[in-house]
């Protein structure tokens, strides 16, 4: 079935510097480390909350001096477990961001949260601080799966937190992980149908991947964990697309589903290759033609701030070729696809210099990609094979 994109950016004609900035704030601490997680998260017995609040504000102020004069369109508190942040810290960062830049109308302010009862008790205070969207890490609605995933909550606690969130925040999303070892098609169909019945406007649905350096990777190497068969996973993916589409939450990105207008504006800034600022340990940014990365280890980030006034460990200018390649790799994850003329402008090259035409012709004939004027997108069938397609399609800059 040929599905035309319905998410063409309304502001596609704006230049890069006209677009509002996105701001990412990384809180690196967790109660425990999940066995599948390769994010920059750390377990510490104690956290000096006052010191961390002041450090994040200092890192924020540094970015304001580098990239002034543009509104903030979205803020995303990620981690780690940012719902462990005191609400007054969240409020201080939001207030400082508005003071430094100003906010675009209807700014989206998202905070990731674990669905424990302790963290759910903070939701009302987080909403008062300015958070208007929460992303809950439910991960599963099944207690045995939650134990396998190393989660600290059970299904009942997760659903109670979801109900609390829906009563407090304007917008709610939650994550689920599927294609778990031993999970059958019927079990996932039942779980997904239940998830869709809760009425949230956004779902993030990820297949379990075994990431290097995680406890699951070590278990797999020892033969203690066998990932789901890729063909079986592909079947679950197709079923997921059909069920979410029928429920009015089609995929707008490989793993993200939303009602029209409920898409994550912050994540769209990444995928559409717009400018964003990143503060906190391990945070990445892309602004002013440069890509930035902060120190990952919390203690090193704090030391960098003391020494330099910021937590940056690496800052590099993006070449024209890198801009073009990265914009294609990010944008083709979206159902809307990419505007080749815009990306050619970023790379200051002819569109033919971005794409391997022979590979494009072959993938078009196979129904894996579609070209409509200046737009190129992966078809639903192509999304299943996107990594392989990108490897053949996108020309690596010299």
Could you please describe the fold and organization of this structure?
The protein is of the alpha/beta class and 398 residues long. It folds into 2 domains: 17-271, TIM Barrel, CATH 3.20.20.70; 320-393, Arc Repressor Mutant, subunit A (Orthogonal Bundle). The chain has helices at residues 49-66, 87-101, 117-120, 123-129, 143-148, 155-168, 185-196, 215-221, 230-246, 265-271, 298-308, 320-331, 340-347, 357-365, 380-383, 386-393; strands spanning 21-27, 72-79, 103-113, 133-139, 171-178, 202-207, 251-253, 256-258, 276-279, 284-287, 290-294, 312-317, 338-339, 369-372, 375-378. The protein has a 9-stranded mixed beta sheet with strand order 7-8-6-5-4-3-2-1-9, sandwiched between helices. Strands 10-11-12 form a 3-stranded antiparallel beta sheet. Strands 13-15-14 form a 3-stranded antiparallel beta sheet. The protein is globular and about 60 Å long.
Question: What's the topology here?
Answer:
Elements: E1 21-27, H1 49-66, E2 72-79, H2 87-101, E3 103-113, H3 117-120, H4 123-129, E4 133-139, H5 143-148, H6 155-168, E5 171-178, H7 185-196, E6 202-207, H8 215-221, H9 230-246, E7 251-253, E8 256-258, H10 265-271, E9 276-279, E10 284-287, E11 290-294, H11 298-308, E12 312-317, H12 320-331, E13 338-339, H13 340-347, H14 357-365, E14 369-372, E15 375-378, H15 380-383, H16 386-393
Parallel strand pairs: 1-2, 1-9, 2-3, 3-4, 4-5, 5-6
Antiparallel strand pairs: 6-8, 7-8, 10-11, 11-12, 13-15, 14-15
Helix pairs in contact: 1-2, 2-4, 7-9, 12-13
């Amino acid at each position: 079935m040929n599905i035309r994109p319905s998410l063409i950016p309304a502001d596609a004609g704006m230049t890069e510097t006209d677009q509002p900035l996105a701001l990412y704030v990384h809180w690196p601490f967790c109660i425990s480390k999940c066995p599948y997680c390769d994010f920059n998260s750390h377990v510490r017995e104690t956290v000096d909350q006052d010191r961390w609040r002041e450090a994040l504000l200092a890192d924020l102020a540094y970015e304001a001096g580098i990239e002034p004069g543009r509104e903030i369109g979205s803020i995303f508190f990620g981690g780690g477990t940012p719902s462990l942040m005191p609400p007054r810290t969240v409020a201080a960062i939001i207030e400082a961001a508005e003071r430094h830049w100003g906010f675009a109308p209807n700014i989206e302010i998202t905070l990731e949260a674990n669905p424990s009862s302790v963290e759910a008790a903070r939701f009302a205070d987080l909403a008062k601080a300015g958070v208007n969207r929460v992303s809950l890490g439910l991960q599963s609605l099944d207690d045995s799966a939650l134990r396998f995933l190393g989660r600290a909550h059970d299904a009942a606690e997760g659903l109670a937190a979801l109900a609390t969130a829906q009563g407090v925040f304007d917008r709610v999303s939650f994550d689920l992980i599927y294609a778990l070892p031993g999970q059958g098609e019927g079990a996932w169909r039942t779980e997904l149908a239940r998830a869709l019945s809760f009425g949230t406007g956004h779902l993030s649905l990820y297949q379990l991947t075994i990431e290097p350096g995680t406890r699951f990777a070590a278990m797999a190497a020892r033969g203690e964990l066998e990932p789901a068969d890729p063909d079986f996973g592909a079947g679950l993916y197709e079923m997921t697309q059909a069920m979410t589409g029928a429920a009015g939450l089609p995929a707008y990105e490989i793993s993200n589903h939303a009602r029209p207008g409920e898409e994550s504006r912050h994540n769209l800034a990444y995928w559409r290759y717009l400018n964003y600022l990143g503060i906190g340990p391990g945070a990445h940014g892309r602004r002013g033609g440069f890509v930035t990365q902060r120190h990952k280890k919390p203690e090193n980030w704090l030391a960098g701030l003391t020494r330099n006034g910021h937590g940056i460990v690496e800052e590099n200018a993006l070449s024209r070729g890198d801009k073009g390649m990265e914009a294609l790799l990010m944008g083709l994850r979206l159902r809307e696809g990419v505007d080749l003329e815009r990306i050619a402008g970023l790379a200051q090259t002819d569109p033919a210099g971005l794409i391997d035409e022979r590979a494009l012709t072959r993938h078009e004939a196979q129904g894996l990609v579609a070209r409509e004027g200046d737009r190129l997108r992966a078809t639903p069938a192509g999304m299943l094979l996107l990594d392989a397609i990108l490897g053949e399609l996108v020309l690596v800059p010299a």
